[in-house]
């Protein structure tokens, strides 16, 4: 069965100074714009030009869970596209605006005027994408890149944020190409796993993923829209290292890393080692799993007055008091599977997943399922059971920024893996125009750097 694809790209650069998201040291609105931000829309339709599904990716840190709920209603009203047919994905860019009101102000402050502008630009982009849909074939290829490194290192029995060349890292670069019947590349999706935290400057920037997309779209030409799909990079950051420590780079480092990754992408693109992907009726399915906390203290534990000098802890305690009852059932991890055929699916997750989840998913399902964290909302970091026992930023310290009441229970890793398996087994039983899904393993290795 053939599929049709419409694409568009709309600028979402803030039109006035706002606070940027992702770093607690930024105390003021941004001071300069280094590169523009964009939202890119990939609208998939069936061969009758009906039943649209959307893959939306943007140069944002995430799409806030509260914002996603609002946008889903708008899209249903304007385009009759149901929420289960939409993936809101973000490159996890730390040099763009905040899109959620659910976290502490240390992760960036929400701007109502910016969000109104973002909504307007997104709806315009969806309309434009629907208008240029055409039949496409799908191909995939893969390469490697080494711009990221694991950031969790044990020093004197404590996990600190430092380069760990022996830690897990996913170096695979996955390319998914959508080609018209005239053999023109209409869209290219690029999947790689690394935090876009090259620089911590108070500048608007699309970071290294934006540089990659700019280079790729320019080199491929013919109106190709490229999309960056962020992988499970919760514990991976750019390998900017001096001695045994990380350093924050400047704009030239953003450009250098972006062009380096773009070179890997373009070399792979031009090598013609493409594998055809047989497509069938595009299917979507979802599952929600509530993640339990290690320990949920009583409401009295969260006393703002106990931290008169610590503004972060004071704000955290205040939020905990306001939302205490909402945490009793845990927090919802939303799994969303979008399937193009037996060889290609996207699994989106509304969290910062650490790299082990992505590696396990790829290996277990032979690479046919591509993980998309930072999608359809954001709950915070999701570590492994081992990381929860070790501690460190991802497991413990991040809860104060993401306004979570406690670290997660170590049981969540098994619960997540089981939920993913159940979702995929459900999808496996579906038939795609006579083709049943068969999960087959293949040799797959991600080398460490």
From TrEMBL:
* InterPro entries linked to this entry: NEUT/ALK_ceramidase_N (IPR031329)
Reading the lineage from the top rank, the first entry is Bacteria
Alphabetized Pfam families for the sequence: Ceramidase_alk (PF04734)
Provide the protein name.
Neutral/alkaline non-lysosomal ceramidase N-terminal domain-containing protein
Q: Which residues form the Neutral/alkaline non-lysosomal ceramidase N-terminal domain?
A: 5-241
Q: Which organism is it from?
A: Fictibacillus terranigra
